[in-house]
Amino acid sequence: MSYKVAFISLGCAKNLVNAEQMMALCRKAGYTVTGEPEGADVAVLNTCGFIESAKSEAIDNIIELGQLKAQGKLKKLLVTGCLSQRYPEDIRAELPEVDGMLGTGSYTDVVQAIEELMAGEKAEHFGDIHRTYEDGERLVTTPSYTAYLKIAEGCSNGCAFCIIPKLRGRYRSRSMQALLAEAGTLADSGVKELIVIAQDITRYGLDLKDGSTLAGLLRELCKLPFHWIRLHYLYPEAVTDELIDVIAREKKIVHYLDIPIQHANDGILKAMRRRNTKAEIKALFAKLRAAMPDVVIRTSIICGLPGEGEAEFEELCDFLREEKIQRAGIFQFSPEEGTLAAAMENQVDPDVAQRRVELAVDIQSRVMDEYNEDRLGTCMEVLCEGFDEDEGCFVGRTYADSVEIDGRVLFTAADVIMPGEFVWVRITGVSDGDLVGEIEE
């Protein structure tokens, strides 16, 4: 039978890649794949279950899709990903809208699950999360000029606040051969910006024990006709001198490095089970800036971990003021059941943690404003993403802006600029955190 299957993917880019693999399997089975659940036979909701806000978003989506079912506009709902892996019993007990589930070890069972659902059978597949198949075809859903390359699955770092190893299994690198084949296919399809992702890309290849490293992989990827190669999630303690040298030398690798540090107080870092000290983080940032004066660092910060007092928080604020990290996501600690941090003593009052987030965001806003002001009068290469009717101009991103998480450049041009084109833009102003400019003829 040919069914109409709708896909909705929540959460991170790594999750999106899993959804794209499931879409490819469904299309191979002869199904019609769509992004619109209304009128579909089956909706596949690929969920995130990382923190409280992600769980809430997933549940809201389940309820909405359940309403479509109740109206006769959708036949079956299959929930996949981290939420189903983490809370199968709760879903069975409390969300009767859900007809079937796939755990994170069973993405490749999607066609079988759909067949079971449409035959009126129960469809629940929970395979080994440490042995997922990562080399399958994908139906790429990002704009034609940008695509993700997931180089590993799982995580073995064991940070105290994080549930991901329990949901995704231990760290597993994909083979260099499989990655270069997939990257070659993406390049041939016209992808200009390749975004290399994993929970931790710095540890790529170490588990394979065949000499593969991130530095070696990047050298090979740079031989392919990409214009930009962007790196997401470099863990500070695993950034080697060889890796810094490759990033600095290879013209295609953009000098935008996403390095989650989480905090700057040694006691809190130790409680988080992070593997570095504040001094080591500062030394790494200094080394990166010496090798690449134009480097833009992005990081993640958690406020309100158990044991964080005013002194620890003030040390974090001083660090942010001194280091002037240009991009930062600042999050309130979420005590996730099953993690070490959730059971720690000296939990911080959520209102206090929220206030600390606001204070840290305020510091970061000033740092980012300063960065933007320094761009005025300069010429920057911009990847055009299209024409924004509301703004009445073209929009794009510089090397300093990753997809959907950083700022944009709003620019004018006498001629039509197509999405995916690279142009040089003279920066003339700043608007609500976005840069404004005009094309440099």
Notes on the protein architecture:
The protein has 441 residues and is an alpha/beta fold. The protein contains 13 helices and 19 strands. Strands 2-1-3-4-5-6 form a 6-stranded parallel sheet, sandwiched between helices. A hairpin with a 2-residue loop joins strand 18 (422-431) and strand 19. Helix 8 runs parallel beside helix 9 and helix 12 packs parallel to helix 13. The longest helix has 26 residues, at 350-375. The radius of gyration is 22 Å and the shape is globular. The chain starts with a strand and ends with a strand.
Descriptive keywords:
13 helices, alpha/beta, six-stranded parallel beta sheet, 441 residues, single chain
